[in-house]
Amino acid sequence: MEQARNYVCTECASAVPSGHKFCGACGAGVPNEAQTLETRFFGALQMPGKARLIVVRGDEAMGEGLSYLLQATEHVAGREADQIPFPSDNWLSPAHANFLYRGEKLVVRDEGSLNGVYIRIRGASPIQIGDHFMCGQQLFRIDATPKDTSGPEADQTHFYSSPRRPSAFRVTQVLEGGMDGIVCCAHEQSVQIGREDCDINFPDDVHMSPRHARVEMSGESLELVDENSQNGTYVRIRGERELSHGDYLFLGRNLLRVEVTA
Amino acid sequence: MIVCSRCSKENQDHYKFCLGCGAELPRQSSKPRSFSAPTPPGGTPSQGRTTNAPQVPQAQAGRAEALASAPQLELDPAPVEPARAKPVAVEDLLPPELAPLSEETSPCPHCGSQVPENFRFCHVCGDDLHAEASGEAFGDAPAERVSAPAVADAPQPAAARARLVLIQPDGSEGESFPLSGGRTLIGRGTGGIFANDAYLSPEHAEFRFEGDQLVVKDMESLNGVYIRIEPEVPIELFDGSIFRVGQEILRFEAPVAPDPAADGTQYMGSPHRGYLGRIALMIGRESTGNSYPIPPQGIHLGRERGDVVFPEDGYVSGLHCRVNSEVGHVFLTDVGSSNGTFVRVSNESYVPQGTFVLIGQQLFRAEY
């Protein structure tokens, strides 16, 4: 006694090989499942080549641990987005960022958001005047040293300026709401940020490491260096950025981890 | 290791209270160390005071040597740049326990922790290390009470109702400048003791009397007129108020924020702790350098102590002034600094008898 080796037509009991939509003997329809031998995944998460976003720290409405499978070609995240919504985070623009595939590569594109998309740097990263970056709960901007406006008047009166020394650049803390906070002009060639004994100190920021990051002028260019901080240093991306497995992104208050299965 | 007598928990040697039950841990008897703070004779210029100090604690030895090696008579060495205004050039040395961390340490007699030599209290257990040392460290006599005789070169004209007494860089009194009962304009263009001050505008300020009160008016000068504020008397700061501490010009800036975006998105940033505004260091006509936001509890400024410190400005006192808020207004208060805190006159101001006025690079006392 043996089992029939093919699908058996429910009308006429003839064998129907895979790939047939109708029974060759009686013309009865063949159910979808029996038409091909394609094996499906139990869940979409098993699909290869597709990336996931894991919400490591979410806002109140969207819990932590939530994950989004990026199985379409474009996925918009934002306060009023359909695909990746974060409705209660008012630091997010309605359509904030777009996760999309370019060929095999996943990229994130800032959709002209107010507050931008931040990616965790690995080690050191080049940075420019005007760029923003985050350490712990703090947001910073790199500014140029302003032009010297302390020269004498036409009538030869000298301007009394506070003592100062040459400074290659400055780091400005940006406060929630947009006001500037601490401004620190670089001593020599670098500005060190951390909890204690740095140029800019945040003793009460529990997400910041004692020595967290520094901005350094090397030659003519600036570099942002993460000093093996526990929570990392994030830099605001310009335009779009290719993502790879293990990248971390801040969108407003939400911290996302990128997972790309091979 | 200290074993708690109540709960038997083992605690580290420097703990004051038991980690397990909170009971007070046994104290060793504290042995006060011999320490004699140099007592500054009232009003002696610091150079003499420091070099004569019999025992200079470690942290200050370097500074004292530097001072000692300077020519004794050269109280006001020629500056490299055009001289900056120097409010009474007294090197306001910190009490030794407040000087920068000493590298030398000695064990705390109470808890045994290694404590920097210049600490007065143990940083671990809070024990008073110099219980017998006298407390005159803060009692610096005001620098202006230097006993040099007033050099009254210019005999006062009969019409003079008041005079501006020049305070020289070493703290002694210099020439006097008479002020009549009418309007007296001073500036680089008016000559005399003002002629060589490159920081004075040609027409800088005008003095006049209103009743019994002397009034100064800033004639839209470049560098302004500064008046020393009384210690412990709060002066309100407004957006753009400028004040001077040592050699530093600081501006108070009220909080400003950009308008929120039309789509309701808020600007993200560091936590905003209800800042009252900022103080910013003026390094040009409209440019500022380092700046610090002022939290609701206020901030202290000083050379070594406080939230904002000026370790390189010898004219700033260890703890100099504070900026804080009361009933929704922001105030500046001098906390007993040696050289004073000066507020820039906005348009005009009364000048009470005895007030110090900083004009250009020179400091005067108004007497009438």
Topology:
The complex is a heterodimer of chains A (262) and B (368).
Chain A lengths: L6 E2 L6 E2 L15 H4 L15 E7 L9 E4 L3 E5 L5 E2 L11 E6 L2 E6 L6 E4 L3 E4 L4 E4 L2 E7 L24 E6 L5 E6 L4 E5 L5 E2 L9 E8 L2 E6 L6 E4 L3 E4 L4 E4 L2 E7 L2
Parallel strand pairs in A: 5-6, 15-16
Antiparallel strand pairs in A: 1-2, 3-4, 3-22, 5-7, 7-8, 8-20, 9-19, 9-21, 10-18, 11-12, 11-19, 12-13, 13-14, 15-17, 17-18, 21-22
Chain B lengths: L1 E2 L6 E2 L34 H7 L5 H12 L35 E3 L6 E3 L43 E8 L5 E8 L3 E3 L18 E6 L2 E6 L6 E4 L6 E3 L4 E4 L2 E6 L24 E5 L5 E6 L5 E4 L5 E2 L11 E6 L2 E6 L6 E4 L3 E4 L4 E4 L2 E6 L1
Parallel strand pairs in B: 16-17
Antiparallel strand pairs in B: 1-2, 3-4, 5-6, 5-23, 7-8, 8-9, 9-21, 10-20, 10-22, 11-19, 12-13, 12-20, 13-14, 14-15, 16-18, 18-19, 22-23
3D architecture notes:
The complex is a heterodimer of chains A (262) and B (368). Chain A contains one helix and 22 strands. Chain A has 262 residues and is mainly β. In chain A, strand 13 and strand 14 (180-185) form a beta hairpin. The longest helix of chain A is centred in the first third of the chain and has 4 residues, at 32-35. The mean pLDDT of chain A is 91. Chain B has 368 residues and is mainly beta. Chain B is 5% helix and 29% strand. Chain B contains two helices and 23 strands. In chain B, strands 6-5-23-22-10-20-12-13-14-15 form a ten-stranded antiparallel β-sheet, with no helix packed on it. In chain B, strands 11-19-18-16-17 form a five-stranded mixed β-sheet, with no helix packed on it. A four-stranded antiparallel β-sheet of chain B has the order 7-8-9-21, with no helix packed on it. The longest helix of chain B has 12 residues, at 58-69. Chains A and B meet through strand 13 and strand 14 of A and strand 13, strand 14 and strand 15 of B.
